[in-house]
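Let's practice the habit of predicting before peeking. Look at the sequence and jot down your guess about where helices and strands might fall. Then scroll down.
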Amino acid sequence: MSKQAGRMSQSANDFLAPLAPTIGTATNVGTGRAYNNGAVTVTFTANTDGAPATSFTASGYCSVHGVTHSATGSSSPITIQGFGSGVVTNITVTGTNSVGQGPASAASNSVTVTTVPQAPSGLSATDTGTGRPFNNGEARISFTTPATGGSDITGYGIQSNDGGYATSGNSNPLSAAGIASGTTYSFRINATNANGTSDYSALSNSVTLTTVPATPSAPSASSPSAGTDSVSWSAPSNGGSGITSYTWASSDGKSGNVGTATSASVGQEQGTEQTYTVYATNANGNSATSGASGSVTTVFAAFGAFGAFGAFSAFGAFGAFSAFGAFGAFGAFSAFGAFGAFGAFGAFGAFGAFGAFGAFAAYGGGSRWYSVGPNTLILTTNGYVQASDLEVGDTLVSADVPGLGMSFTKEEMVAWTNNPDSLAIVPNQTTTVTAVGVSNASVVVMIGNETYSGTHHLLAKRDGLAQMILSANLLTTDKLWSTQTNSWTDIVDLVITVMDHQVISVNCEPLDIFFTENYLVYDGYPIDSPLPEPEPAPE
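Done guessing? Here is the structure:
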């Protein structure tokens, strides 16, 4: 056959399929592509030597889906969609005309198909609470790290269920912070890479964000009675977690914890001036400290510039003795050397001639009981409680006193002594209130802010011995066992006088020893039982 015979006319091409196109470059689209819906754009050149193509089909195999994804167009370039994220593929192109589809082009360059990340899953939100400032709650949100979509994840977005809170992070777990205390939220998150942002996850569990309490407002302070300041405050917002205690502090260095009560009775030196602050505590920690109260001056005790007589006003400022110029004939008792003839009542041994007010020794007798003043604070396992507020079943803090143990009679308690310098008493026992009684006593013993009937016993140090001493027999030279320091402390502001006053008696089991705000005391008189006369004061 001649060369001429081997040529085909154009009209003959109308009966042939197109020749294979010349492949160009395959390029990943990536940007904005949803997870597992990647796209690749491919360029090519149609072969014009043979029959022309009326359309072209670009195809590539997707190993994620296990299928070949294709797209058809009339010219270059063509974009193929639907590839799995991260798949690596090659693209070929074929031409088609009315006769049919021609052969495929050579394969393109390899291309990695990328998308936005997969949506996160498996969310779990928890409250971090501890130490968080008020109205700065934080949720920690853990999750299953999603597939990257073939491009590294650069961060995560967090949104609350109501859309009112939004933030971002780049770790797992994530932190959602700065949320109002007590707010309840669930959260959803999305992931972002160079191609864009994934869909949101499903919502997490709901969680209430808690913090420390709000700062209490400045407390109010007054001095309602001798040697006692009364401090009160309003409960602040609890930060989403119940307040477990309040701690007050005075400007002179004293402090105390009152449990969940919003007031405190504070023993202070008479005539001193101080202010008070308070902070609240919950399971997450302490609030900030309040501002200071107004300044309060503690009033003086009865019978000594001392209130019950208006600084003895009934006698015109010692009026019954005014002819002596406020005891002038005695030079402020100077004839007796500041009570000298009596040795600070010495001739009577702290009123000893009367057996510590012996003329009143029976204290009324009969079926009465005596103990602590209604406002004296008693240490319970839930903090300090005024004696008048005690109830049957309350648990008081007690101690195992060396040499007495956990079971003893009143007689054994009275007879007990020990070496005061080696004594170790730890408030690590409890005793339960079994009965509470109210009565009147005719002798009041005031030690700072605490009051007792004359028949109440306190742990004291005298003449080189530790012993339980009747309150009416106490001397200013004695030392008492301090609740605050677990050691001996000097007696400050001791006033013992005859005055009818209300007292609270407390019976406990298994121990009749318990702690007041300041001292370790004993109350072993059975309620409704006659009382023996108090022991006489030492000579």
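How did you do? The longest strand covers residues 429-447.
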